Amino acid sequence: MTKVIIDAAKALAIIVHDQIIIGKNGHVGLKGLTLIEHRSG
């Protein structure tokens, strides 16, 4: 699903910096898990 979001954002010239998942017991950023690679741009 993250790839779909990133691809859709590219079509709109939007840069996705991170995708945060918030749950009952905490949160996690996919960039911190290296599931989204950092691109400078």
Q: In summary, what is this structure?
A:
By secondary structure, this protein is α+β, with helices and mostly antiparallel strands. The protein has one domain. Helix content is 24%, strand content 20%.
Write the layout of secondary structure elements.
Blueprint: H1 2-11, E1 20-23, E2 26-29
Antiparallel strand pairs: 1-2
What does it look like?
The chain is of the alpha+beta class and 41 residues long. The chain has one domain. The protein is built from 1 helix and 2 strands, in the order αββ. Strands 1-2 form a two-stranded antiparallel ribbon. This is DNA repair protein RadC.
Question: What fraction of residues sit in β-strands?
Answer: 15-25%
Which range best describes the helical content: under 10%, 10-25%, 25-40%, 40-55%, 55-70% or over 70%? 10-25%
| Widest β-sheet, arrangement of strands | 1-2
Distance between the termini: 23 Å
What is the element string, with H for helices and E for strands? HEE
Structural class: alpha+beta
**Which consecutive residue ranges, at least 5 long each, have pLDDT under 50?**
none
Give the number of domains: 1
Please tell me the overall pLDDT: 77
Major sheet details: 2 strands, antiparallel
Quaternary state of the chains: single chain
The total strand number stands at 2
Q: So what's the overall shape?
A: elongated
Rg (C-alpha, Å): 11 Å
Number of helices: 1
